[in-house]
Write a structure and sequence with these properties.
By secondary structure, this protein is α+β, with helices and mostly antiparallel strands. 23% of the residues lie in helices and 24% in strands. It is built from six helices and twelve strands. A six-stranded mixed sheet has the order 3-4-2-1-12-11. The protein binds one DNA strand of 15 nucleotides through loops.
Length: 268
DNA sequence: ATGGTCGCGAGGCGA
């Protein structure tokens, strides 16, 4: 079985690319982030045509997450319990469309779009940290309740856990940028402490290996990216991993998402 | 990879 995660940065704008990629990647489950649409604009027929069931959670032009599967799609959950809400200045707080879960081929899959903290002193940063801590609390409980549970927490984490996960840590530090701050890294490590493993890194060692390249500043041709998309696997799922890859080719050319797909191979 | 961003939606925000 092959599972993957991909922040597509608008599913409608990327429909042709996504279809072609599904065709050649041969993946069984795809967790999608940033669909950037509501259900009424979701390209349902694309997935039907390709033989995938799909579940979507999108509330507006922002965020939006989905799971496509050709090995079953059961017990769909939208948002996790007590998922922190956000509203600017505390107004109109809503639980944003950033998490959807489903059971696919015996694996509990979560497609996650972790909030962007924007700036170290921005109100989005405490939102991001509480969002992660709440999810971590649940994820920790899931493996404690059932050590044999196969759980994949995959998506755009908006965190670079190690210095080598950005092209120039000194630039990030001197500019006071997010994604590399200690509180963000601690939030990521808390998932590892809870028993979840980054199953992609061992198969795609750095430095210089990334999953995201900003559209601006010629970041991709200059090989200036960030590793911020991850598949974190519970112990029972991690034991099944036989390989992983970052499809950097998909970032090339006109009409690419700014994120590359990340794939994980599982033993049957 | 052949270049100083892109998507949504119709101005400016979000990333």
């Amino acid at each position: 079985m092959k599972i993957a995660t991909w922040n597509v940065n608008s599913l409608r704008a990327r429909a042709d690319r996504v279809e072609a990629w599904l065709q050649r990647s041969d993946c069984d489950v795809l967790a999608i982030q940033e669909t950037k649409c509501k259900d009424e604009n979701f390209p349902w027929e694309l997935f039907e045509r390709m033989g995938y069931e799909v579940a979507h959670f999108g509330l507006s032009q922002w965020n939006g997450v989905a799971i496509a599967s050709r090995v079953g799609l059961d017990d769909v959950e939208r948002t996790f319990m007590d998922q922190p809400a956000f509203g600017k200045g505390g107004k109109d707080e809503t639980q944003e469309a950033r998490a959807i879960g489903a059971t696919c081929g015996g694996v509990r899959v979560w497609s996650l779009y972790v909030p962007n903290g924007r700036a170290l002193d921005d109100e989005h940063m405490p939102y991001k940290l509480s969002w992660l801590d709440t999810l971590r609390s649940h994820a920790e409980g899931w493996v404690k309740a059932d050590p044999a549970a196969q759980i994949a927490l995959m998506g755009d984490w908006n965190i670079a856990p190690h210095d080598e996960d950005v092209w120039d840590i000194d630039y990030f530090r001197s500019a006071g940028l997010t994604h590399v701050s200690e509180p963000e890294r601690a939030a990521f490590r808390a998932f590892e402490d809870a028993g979840y493993t980054d199953v992609v890194r061992p198969h795609t060692p750095g430095p210089g290996v990334y999953t995201y390249w900003d559209y601006t500043q010629l970041r991709f041709p200059k090989k200036e990216g960030m590793r911020i998309d991850f598949v974190l696997a519970s112990p029972a799922l991690a034991a099944r991993v036989t390989g992983a890859a970052i499809d950097r080719e998909e970032r090339k050319g006109k009409g690419a998402s700014d994120h590359a797909p990340v794939l994980v191979d599982l033993a049957n």
